[in-house]
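Ticket #405: bound-state structure for pyridoxal-5'-phosphate.
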Amino acid sequence: MIKINENYKKLQASYLFVEISKRVSEFQKKNPDKEIIRMGIGDVTLPLPAVCTSAMHKAVDDLANAKTFKGYGPEQGYDFLREPIAENDFKSLGVSADEIFVSDGAKCDTANIQELFSQDTVIALPDPVYPVYSDTNVMAGRSGNFINGRYENFIYLDSTEKNNFIPDLPSKKPDLIYLCFPNNPTGATAAKDQLKKWVDYAKENKALILFDAAYEAFIRDASLPKSIFEIAGAKEVAVEFRSFSKTAGFTGVRCGFIAISKECKVWDKEGNSHSLHALWNRRHSTKFNGASYPIQKGAAAIYTPEGKKEVKDMIDYYLTNAKVIRESMEKLGYKCTGGDNSPYVWVKTGKPSWDFFDFLLDKTGVVCTPGAGFGACGEGYVRFSAFNSKEKTEAAMAKVAEFVK
Ligand SMILES: *Cc1c(COP(=O)(O)O)cnc(C)c1O
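RESOLUTION: The complex was predicted; output attached.
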């Protein structure tokens, strides 16, 4: 008899986006002539930078020619991509090309890395949270039961108004700590001294930090760290995840990478140290056969001077939308976080998330994302996303303003 992984029974159904589309289609049926503006989307909308598509076209032509054809590539990624990543993103931070592992995206990487660690690893994760961190550890059997809205074995790092959405160090000791800045869903960014606290804590406790920097391209404030490796000692206790999805519109193209320093140590039960780089290399080359050649060529084009300019313009466009959202909501008296160095604006609604969602949809046709769907600390908040067009963003904010007046 084939038996299932019992841990899957502990997963909570993900109602959030299903429930949103159900409510939106009910609204549409009742109000067929009302326009719906989607401000909840967590996906990019602008087309790929032209440098990327032309590099990808050329790479496809390489595959059509026996002289330039490529079969299996290196599992860790081609040097033509790993080198510009190291050079541009990490040069002054001392991360080299052979410490970069190219992949098909940060979702898979943040999901997969937990399998390197023991079954009894104690997990700390933010609340509200990107659900991948939580669900993959549930699947792996590290969660315990779901009681009163939370898994009993997880340490929740509350991100609330009280701590400016930057979680405090926990009172119980975790082994593995997930952090994400700029944050999805709150849009909060962490300053260097705030990250330093976590790095020092991980060092003292022989813990490991998994730092998700999928939104680093949105950081425009030069005083904010774009990489956790800007913090002294982080290379020994932290791994960084990056993605071209939000940086360059690669959500449907699929490419990202992990940076793992060779200095990063993890431990076996006898207390002997092991190289996390070596462990991940073993896992990655066993289970992954490399991101596709044309995609990696497209990603490498981002690091050319034209590529950098196109990416900057693209992010500027979304950041302008984010500013419009934040300023409009603040003008109406709502407290907001994010939207300055992040594409998300986290709005305090003064009522339960879903009530605000219904109220907004019903009166204006504007769709946001209820914060409660991201965790207990998200109750009372909604997330607005800057990934719609400028025109739609402005139209949505005008409707909200008109109504709230
Ligand atoms: C979008 C997103 C990613 C990127 O995922 P990809 O698989 O690279 O598209 C990673 N982490 C967070 C928090 C995200 O919101």
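RESOLUTION NOTES: The chain has 13 helices and 17 strands.
TICKET STATUS: resolved
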